[in-house]
Amino acid sequence: MQRNNMKTLKLVSALAFFLSGTTAMAQTTNQFTAKQAVEYGLKNAYQVKNALLDVLIQEQTNKDVTSTALPQISANGTFTDYLNIPTTLLPGEFFPGGVPGTYKPLKFGTKYNTNGGVTLTQILFDGQVFVGLQARKTSIAYRQKAAEVTQENIKANIYKIYYQLVVSKTQIDLLDANITRLQKLEHDTREIYKNGFAEKLDVDKVTVQIANLQTEKLRALNSTANGYTGLKVLMGMPMKDSLKLTDSISDEQIKENILTTEDYKYTDRKEYQALELGNKLNEYNVKRYKLSRIPVLNFNANYSKQAQLTKFDFLKRETDWFTTSYIGLSLSVPIFKGFSTKAKIEGAKLSVLQSQNQLEGLKLSIDNDVIVAKNNFATATATMDYQKQNMALAENVYNQTKKKYEAGTGSTTEINTADVDLKTAQTNYISSLYDAVIARIDLLKAVGKL
After folding, report:
1. Which pLDDT does position 301 carry in this prediction?
2. CA 285 to CA 134: how far, in whole Å?
3. 10-residue block means of pLDDT along the chain (450 residues)?
4. Whole-structure pTM value
5. What is the rounded distance in angstroms from the CA atom of residue 308 to the CA atom of residue 46?
6. Quick one: 81 exposed, middle or buried, by C-beta within 10 A (0-12, 13-18, 19+)?
7. What is the pLDDT of residue 382?
8. Domains, the chain
9. 152, 162, 173: which is closest to 249 by C-alpha?
10. How would you class 388 by CB atoms within 10 Å of its CB: exposed for 0-12, middle for 13-18, buried for 19 or more?
């Protein structure tokens, strides 16, 4: 039994050394409070980076929309080598002695033709373009709000994992205290056994309990190591870097500043703000399709040069280049598109109704989130307080039972029972502390005050 106990001790020591040794091997050592961990995550998490890139992509899309309202200038040039000059048929009566009703084929033009020019087009009025320009600000705001939703989700998850790891340290500290306590009990029981007042079985029972606790600590250390890895992934931190959490957590911290959540507004939630902007964009769509029914007016201008030669000598100075230029207006009046525009308008209106329904649904969801979060928080904190008192009571019972056992008036069964009750109370307290931390974060997130 002692050999197994020693093996377990070596495993625990090896894992503890590995966890502490990662700091020495890492390139960067990070000591973060919870707030600093969140700030790091908001800068480095890939989900946040992509959400912010969406904002930049929307900015480029807006520039593209703006460009449609600016002058469009294009240059063009053509060169043609007629292997066979086009033939034109002229009526026979155009020629002396020609017979009416007949045609005479003639070739007009030159073998080589070239043309170069510049064309300018400017939209003077287009309802759809103007609506697109109006919607630019809302489009950016929508993308920014979507990024804030992503940031808030990352923030909540970082807080949860951070404080869970903080609580796990408390768990490991309790396990260490229990191991130390039982090691002393094992020593005392062994001395009692040597004096003939206890059985070898009593010593073995305590040794088994120590081995169980060391195994439990081994699992807790492994779970904590995996938790640190998960937190690094969420924060976007390289695995080679070390991470140390400097914040602590107490019952009082969990309960503080919760009274501010009594009065909440739907508009405090990022999701609601984003959905409102989405609804506004849908309304712009309705307006855009309606304005597609009105005429579009464009200004056009062109300047070009043309040369026609029988020999390939365009670069000679004496080549004649003929100039053509014009300015004009073009008006496009939509008359009938097979009810396409009407269908688009009605579809856009239905999308507006959908987004409005989503807003109402989100209100119900927020109300539900807040009620559930408040209930969970009240239950979690009450359970935490109860389990903390219960743990203190179980510890007191164990201490009194141990004194009786050492005095020879208590039995091994009594102290083993007291030990099991103490470990159960400690486990329940750690579990309630976990639940209370999560419940606090969920409540703050539900009312939009995380």
Report:
1. 95
2. 11
3. 47 50 61 92 93 94 91 93 87 78 83 92 91 92 94 93 90 87 85 81 86 90 92 92 89 79 84 94 93 92 89 72 92 89 92 94 94 93 93 90 80 83 88 91 90
4. 0.79
5. 61
6. exposed
7. 93
8. 2-70+126-294+334-446 (1.20.1600.10)
9. 162
10. middle
Q: Which residue has the tokens 């109006």?
A: 134
Torsion over CA: 388, 390, 391, 392 (sign): positive
Task: Determine how many CB atoms are found less than 10 A away from the CB of residue 342.
Answer: 12
**Which residues lie across from 31 on neighbouring strands?**
244
Q: Which of 298, 324, 302 is nearest to 75 (CA)?
A: 302
Residue 319 C-beta-side C-alpha neighbours within 13 Å: 18
Question: Is the Cα torsion angle 386, 392, 393, 395 positive or negative in sign?
Answer: positive
Structure tokens, 116: 């170069």
The pLDDT of residue 219 is 92
Q: Is 125 left (phi over 0), alpha (psi -120 to 50) or beta?
A: beta
Buried b (16+ CB within 10 A) or exposed e, 143-181: bbbbbbbbbbbbbbbbbbbbbbbbbbebbbebbeebbeb
Instruction: Please name the helix (run of DSSP H) or strand (run of DSSP E) that holds residue 125, with its range, or none.
Output: strand 112-125
In terms of phi and psi (left: phi > 0; alpha: psi -120 to 50; beta: otherwise), the region of 234 is alpha
* CA nearest neighbour of 227 among 150, 170, 168: 168
Other Cβ atoms within 10 Å of 100 Cβ, number: 7
Q: According to the model, what pLDDT value does residue 165 have?
A: 92
Q: What pLDDT sits at residue 317?
A: 66
Residue 9: the pLDDT is: 46
Tell me the Ramachandran region of residue 167: left when phi exceeds 0, alpha when psi lies from -120 to 50, beta otherwise.
alpha
